[in-house]
Specification:
Largest sheet: 6 strands, mixed
Number of domains: 1
Number of strands: 12
Helix content: 25-40%
Strand order of the largest sheet: 2-3-6-5-7-11
Strand content: 15-25%
CATH superfamily: CNF1/YfiH-like putative cysteine hydrolases
Shape: globular
CATH architecture: 4-Layer Sandwich
CATH class: Alpha Beta
Number of helices: 8
Structural class: alpha+beta
Length: 217
């Protein structure tokens, strides 16, 4: 069964974070994801554009991103009439995809408050990275943010908390801390019953679909 977040539910925003075997709504519009920082609208996504964030202010088709360990972010303005779906792996975080997606959403928000929900992703219990990954993230997010999101693993490798870095990126883009939500104990690599995971299953892994739609009333 797909997951909803109370922060977005409270604003009446229809959305869902995907799990194994759920059924996303028909007509989803999503981009060709490439682990970058480009933001696109629904029309461009429908034509097959490469992007890792989608922002919509009109239309009846839900927008979506897919993941298999990376971090999905669904965000909305207060009246639900502008929404965003963001795909953030370590490359996207290093490229600034979260900031780019939130900046684009804010331009469509007429000064209204924003909320963002961080969906299930690989946790620091399972996500081991090397120095080049940390160097790329440090350049974008700074040493302090990175230091709070890593723990020693084996020599030359560290456990990385992608969710913590995503929340820092959201705050850096101007989303208030109390307007950012997540899901505790929702590691995609640990929970094979609910989630697909590329780190756990390799190329045969499926994908989780995360969607959000513009409020219609």
């Amino acid at each position: 069964m797909s997951l909803e977040h109370p922060l977005l539910v409270a604003w009446g925003v229809r959305h869902a974070f995907g799990t194994r075997g759920d059924s996303p709504p028909a007509g989803l519009v999503r981009p060709r994801q490439v682990h970058g920082a480009r933001v696109a609208g629904p029309e461009a996504c429908a034509s097959g554009v490469e992007a890792d964030a989608v922002v919509a202010r009109s239309g009846r088709s839900p927008i979506a991103v897919v993941t298999a360990d990376c971090v999905p972010v669904l965000a909305a303005r207060e009246d639900g009439r502008a929404v965003a779906a963001i795909h953030a792996g370590w490359r996207g975080l290093a490229a600034g995809v979260v900031e780019a997606g939130i900046d684009a959403l804010r331009r469509e928000s007429d000064g209204q408050s924003l909320r963002a929900a961080v969906g299930p992703h690989i946790g620091p219990c399972c996500y081991e990275v090397d120095a080049p990954v940390l160097d790329a993230l440090r350049h974008r997010l700074g040493a302090d943010a990175l230091g709070e999101a890593i723990a020693d693993a084996r020599p030359g490798h560290w456990w990385l908390d992608l969710g913590a870095l995503t929340r820092r990126a959201l705050e850096g883009a101007g989303v208030a801390g109390d307007a950012i939500g997540g899901f505790a104990d929702a590691c995609t690599a640990c929970d094979a019953e609910r989630f697909h995971s590329y780190r756990r299953d390799g190329p045969r892994s499926g994908r989780l679909v995360h969607w959000i739609e513009v409020h219609q009333s």
